[in-house]
Amino acid sequence: MRKIIGTVITSITLLSAGATFALSDPGTRLSNWYNLQFEKKAEKLGASTVDKLSSSFTDIQKEMEAMRKSIATSIQDYQTTNLQNSTNTIKEHNEQNIKQLHTVTEKLKEQNTEQMAAYTQQKTLQETANISHDIQDILEDVLKNNQK
Prior knowledge:
mainly alpha; 2 helices
């Protein structure tokens, strides 16, 4: 009897184990395993992608800041250079105007001196002629008065 009871218990155990494995779908288990593995990999890749994107954005921000500083420096240099060039051009133009003014002033002084000399000479000649004419008139009057 023990044998029979042992055989029955063993048979029931084997049948229930077989029924358990037969009732579970191997495709579902494989699908569950695949989904779990996929989720793990997706999480790893997502985290890695986020880390790399974050790192890339940080690098881009650093490059943009460096470019901004470089552009600001370039603009400042450009402004300084243009200001210096403009200042130099204005100074040169001013110096040229002063030189021209001195040249014109000297020419005017020379012309004035020449004109004054010519005017003086002309007036002297004119006055001499007037005096000579007046003397002749006086002499003529004196001679006319003496002849009478």
